[in-house]
Amino acid sequence: MKINPDPLKDQFFLVNRKIIRKLTEFAQLSKNDVVLEVGAGIGNLTKEIAKKAGKVIAFEIDKKFKPFLSTLPKNVDVIYENAWSFVQLHGKFEKKKIYNKVVSNPPYSFIEPFLQNLTFLEYDKVILVIPIKFLKKIDGSGVFGSFFKSEVKMYVPKENFYPSPRTNSVVIDLIKLPDPIKTKNSGLFLRRYMYQHEGQLSKNSLMEGLILYMKLVYGKNFTKNQARKKIADSGIQKELLEKPPLGSEIYEEVNRKLGNLN
């Protein structure tokens, strides 16, 4: 069967079988795992995941690849539609999905919105193939950096894809950061709280977050005035406090200046 991927649809298929096997090794798959794959393409990665996982939920929006995907093992459910509605969390609070792991070479345009919907997802492992340039976006993001860190497992030159994209890629392990309540990490807690309430001015979400943090971690009844004073004394730039947390700068400031409260 002839393969006709469309680069305009971000269809760059990983064809190096050694790298494909490495992805499943990084994911530490077992028969207890339900794995999500977004952008199954012709099923190269899907087949390898299916060998080790209990179940695979594979999304592929392009039905022209159906002849390839129809031969996959019985533990694979292929869904021929956009994965967006399936991965959406619909709210910024901890949730579980029916899948506990993600192993995917997703379409480039899907990566950022997908990561936003991983922020509050409870998962065991997320292994992704992403363009190198996007790695900087993850590591430099105030939001993404409040929920996980990316560990580079291997570099993937563009020649390992068909067709070859313009940029090289990396395989990352998206490691979830520990619960800031359990670790008493005030900076991380406040950053997450700001993101949950990003429609508010930063000064207001920080005030509410401080009150909640002191109660949950130390059992203290922190007043609004105490919270306001703590924020004022921290030295965070006033212009950042007077607007919603829309950039990485306010997240960095909060981490530096309100990161060790007790």
UniProtKB/TrEMBL annotation:
Every copy of the Ribosomal RNA adenine methylase transferase N-terminal domain together lies at 19-178
Q: Name one Pfam family in it.
A: RrnaAD
Report the SUPFAM superfamilies cross-referenced here: S-adenosyl-L-methionine-dependent methyltransferases
Family matches, as SMART domains: rADc
Q: Where does S-adenosyl-L-methionine bind?
A: 14, 39, 60, 105
Query: Which Gene3D superfamilies does the protein's record reference?
Result: Ribosomal RNA adenine dimethylase-like, domain 2, Vaccinia Virus protein VP39
Keywords in alphabetical order, please.
Methyltransferase, RNA-binding, S-adenosyl-L-methionine, Transferase
Molecular-function GO term, any one: RNA binding
The family line of this record is:
Belongs to the class I-like SAM-binding methyltransferase superfamily. rRNA adenine N(6)-methyltransferase family.
Q: Which PANTHER family match?
A: DIMETHYLADENOSINE TRANSFERASE, DIMETHYLADENOSINE TRANSFERASE-RELATED
The name of this protein is Ribosomal RNA adenine methylase transferase N-terminal domain-containing protein
Upper lineage is: Bacteria, Candidatus Woeseibacteriota
